[in-house]
TrEMBL record:
Residues 195-233 form a coiled coil. Residues 24-203 form the Band domain. This is Prohibitin family protein. SMART domains: PHB. GO terms for cellular component: membrane. InterPro entries: Band_7, Band_7/SPFH_dom_sf, Prohibitin.
Length: 286
């Protein structure tokens, strides 16, 4: 075997070994994720791996964290991400306990990834969500629902409750897990038979109360309308009476001895001897 052949074989072997090494050292970070690199010698690297292919030493480990929006579903029915009945119970202000289906949109904050990994060493993003976030999620949601009654959660202004849950979870999970919560909401309520009956009774009572209040309001409006009408009529009569009195006063003030004498003189000229009594001419023939 000549030297050229040996050289070619050596080069081929090097390329082959390089390809094998590259294959073992290559790490792909999926779209929407970043990777935290850790080694026994150097600890956690400050720079994370963005999406795409990277060459990583075999002595280093890469843990992936989602930085894109992810959905956590904890529902009664089977959906993607919720293979079983994952609904959970929350407490209410009136000491009830009611099961809910829940969803949360979240992502890990890129600027907090290395700190998050250091805090939960050995866990990637999925591990943290499944083993840590879910463990405290229920109690955190209950800390908000305890400010609302069972009826408010079941059929009230749920958007207000969901806004407060979102804000509270974002504050808590940002500190604990480096997670940003974009949206968190109660998507459905699942009362048991006993609780459903109690809710139905309350709904019926509430409807009766609202109906009674509506009827009372109608009666009140009618009474007020009648009173206003009576006041208006009284005011009209009063105005007319005042006007009549004013007119009579002016007439009375206008009757003077001079006016009476003038009227008598005018009547005598026309009819003979008469007597004028008051403002009107009364002819009395003598």
């Amino acid at each position: 075997m000549n030297k050229g052949t040996v050289g070619a074989i050596a080069v081929g072997a090097i390329i082959l070994l390089g390809g094998i090494s590259a294959a073992f050292c290559a790490k792909r970070i999926p779209t929407g994720y970043e990777g935290v690199v850790y080694s026994m010698n150097g600890g956690v690297q400050n720079e994370t791996l963005t999406q795409g292919w990277h060459l990583v030493s075999p002595t280093k480990k890469v843990k992936e964290f989602t930085i894109g929006n992810e959905q956590l579903l904890l529902t009664k029915d089977k959906r993607e991400g919720s293979k079983e009945n994952d609904s959970f119970k929350v407490s209410t202000a009136d000491d009830a306990s009611i099961a809910i289906s829940f969803q949360m949109s979240y992502r890990f904050k890129p600027e907090r990834l290395t700190d998050t990994y250091k805090k939960y060493k050995g866990m990637d993003g999925e591990d943290i969500v499944n083993n840590r976030v879910k463990a405290v999620l229920k109690s955190k949601v209950s800390e908000i629902t305890t400010n609302y009654s069972m009826m408010e959660i079941y059929s009230g202004n749920r958007s207000e409750i969901n806004d407060k849950i979102t804000k509270y979870l974002n504050e808590q999970f940002s500190k604990s897990f480096g997670i940003e919560v974009m949206d968190a909401s109660i998507v459905d309520v699942h009362p048991d038979k006993k609780l459903k009956k109690a809710i139905d009774n309350r709904v019926t009572a509430l409807q009766k109360k609202q109906q009674a209040e509506a009827e009372q309001e109608e009666i009140k409006v009618k009474a007020e309308t009648k009173l206003i009408k009576a006041k208006n009529e009284a005011e009209i009569k009063k105005t007319k009476a005042v006007a009549q009195a004013e007119a009579n006063k002016k007439i009375a003030e206008s009757i003077t001895p001079e006016l009476i004498q003038m009227k008598e003189a005018e009547a005598r000229l026309k009819h003979g001897w008469i007597t004028v009594q008051g403002a009107e001419t009364t002819v009395v023939k003598e």
